[in-house]
Write a structure and sequence with these properties.
about 200 residues; mainly alpha; Serine Threonine Protein Phosphatase 5, Tetratricopeptide repeat; 2 domains; elongated
Length: about 200
């Protein structure tokens, strides 16, 4: 009975948290998700959602730490791995971003996450033609997460504009010793869109 009550509490906390997320009440969502994680401490999907909320309010370091833990608990949570890599890239830490994203490159050829991962790695290596090819293919396959497609289209536009994906020159956390400095931005809508699109996340 005790475990059953805890499960019910977790479900209700998640429902309230999602309502708060959709309403843009991020502090309330963080409080609710924190309580849900305390009730279910080994739930990687919940940690992912909590990390996403920290990212929403600009606490990138905390978001990265929680998302890394989420991936440890749920290694098959591929969207979390991609978005953690994008967080590192957007913060200028391209080497770490590549390290996080690289395992996704082994996904099946028809998996859009794999194409996005390959495209981002090519971007970090200044291989812009290959980057464009991979990102465009991923966009064509991705019908689940329009917000992520939007972010990839921004990277493509940045490449097309002639800046090689860089906004503001080389950063200290460049991907390689050659000085590649990709510009990766993450739309504020991407996190909830990812939750709504992924049937493996809690509540589906």
């Amino acid at each position: 009975m005790k475990n059953q009550a805890a499960d019910i509490g977790h479900d209700e906390l998640l429902k309230m948290a999602l309502h708060a997320i959709r309403a843009g009440r991020h502090e309330q969502a963080i409080d609710l998700l924190t309580r849900a994680c305390e009730a279910s401490p080994y739930n990687g999907e919940l940690l992912y959602l909590l990390a996403a909320e920290y990212a929403q309010i600009g606490l990138t370091m905390c978001a990265c730490e929680l998302m890394a833990r989420a991936i440890e608990l749920a290694p098959d949570l591929h969207i979390a791995r991609l978005q953690l890599g994008m967080l590192h890239l957007s913060a200028g830490n391209a080497a770490l971003g590549i390290k996080v994203i690289s395992p996704l490159m082994t996904l099946l050829q028809d998996d859009w996450l794999g194409y996005f991962a390959r495209g981002l790695v090519h971007l970090c290596q200044d291989e812009f033609a290959e980057c464009r090819q991979m990102l465009e293919r991923g966009i064509s396959l991705n019908n689940a997460n329009p917000a992520l497609n939007s972010d990839m289209e921004k990277i493509l536009a940045s490449i097309a504009s002639g800046d090689g994906g860089s906004e503001g020159g080389a950063s200290e956390g460049g991907a390689s010793e050659g000085g590649a400095s990709p510009s990766v931005t993450i739309s504020r809508s991407i996190w909830l869109a990812a939750y709504q699109a992924d049937p493996d996340l809690p509540g589906h």
